[in-house]
Design goal:
This protein is mainly α. The protein has one domain. It contains 2 helices and no strands. Helix 1 packs across helix 2. The longest helix is centred in the middle third of the chain and has 9 residues. The mean pLDDT is about 85.
Length: about 40
Amino acid sequence: MKRRKFPDYITIEGIAEYFNLSLEVVESMQNDRIIILEKTIV
């Protein structure tokens, strides 16, 4: 079975850029226990 190869380390900036979110939103999502998305991320 082939598995996806993920990078060893992903930065907050990389996540924000990939999902087109601000750094503040990504940091808030990492710190919150419950996350409510405004829209579906595909």
